[in-house]
Write a structure and sequence with these properties.
The chain is mostly helical. It is built from 22 helices and no strands.
Length: 422
Amino acid sequence: MKVTQPLLKILHSRKMASLLLLGFASGLPLFLTSRTLQAWMKDAQVDLGVIGWFSLIGLPYTLKFLWSPLLDRFVPPILGRRRGWLLLTQVGLLVAIAAMSLQHPQQALQLVAMNAMLIALLSATQDIAGDAYRTDVLEQQELGIGASTWVLGYRVAILVSGSLALILADYLPWPTVYLLMAALMAVGVVTTLWAPEPIVQGHPPKSLMDAVYLPFKEFFQRLGIRAAILVLLFILLFKLGDALVGNMATPFLLDVGYGKTEIGAIQGTFGFLATAVGVVGGGVVLTKIGIARSLWVFGILQALSNLGYFSLTLLPKNSLWLLLAINLENLCAGLVTAGFVAYLMSQCNHDFTATQYALLSSLMAAGGIILAAPAGDLAKTTGWSVFFLLTLVAALPGLLLLPVVAPWNSRLEPATESQNNR
């Protein structure tokens, strides 16, 4: 009965329901400029090399910290500092995604690229505003369930704009599919109008210079230079082992003989359900034992989950083993995501939520993209069995930093104005 209480809270709380739907709006545009768009271009017989270069459209998600101070400094004329920016970006996304239905990849690829880049910019900006809103609206005791609620909505959106969009494209023209996806952005618009305003909103910086400089100053003064550097290093390294596996999981499974349909079916159904269970379960555990202890438990489980793929290098090809390995990875990924999002929120001051969270999340993304980039070369050099064992080693630096950045008995709480030294 106790386990179901967080789920009931999501359904009955206006705040949690808002976070679920805003998480959905945040995740919806991601695949529309990456995997789903690549499928459309492939159908349009666009050159494979050109399709590969389209991955650069995702750069705004890793560079969003560059313009995040604008969202801390300036307050839109409606709905306040957080919901106002959410509304502006969501309306822009609805229009920009709908505009993709007018594009023709086989005839005017430059226009497709420009339209997709606009969607990515607006989506990254929505993420900045959404992350800041979530951090500001949640109280300390709500961080765990709030983080997991948001991530659950985000994951559902990825399933819709990825798997469902591909299925629809088998029956409908691609422009119609994009129009349907654009219509779903109305979920975000309506939710933003309905969502509660944060009780603690902080104070906007007095100038743009302050908006750029003060978040860094406050962060390093609050933690101290040494501790701040260790926190940043922890954020960079904590999910490295998981990122290495994520980069190579599909090529590995194809290499050992599993079919694309088999992999896709398991990942899109059982894998998604395992992630959802992990995300919600992570919220439950967080409310019971706190953020710090959750990072220890989830981090160890995340590392050990890589043994599922290691076992596939030793066992005969079997769909049951594949199902178990994928479910184990996705379950632990859901747990870790819920805990890590809550941790990032705990490191932000409400005066500079947009800037500080954007910086921390960009650093997390950089760890997954840049540090995990050599995964393919490493696998070629070592072979699959050794590679998956090395991913456990790659998880150790992040785990070894836990006693410093999140001691077992510590209480991680968001910084407030009273903690601010400026």
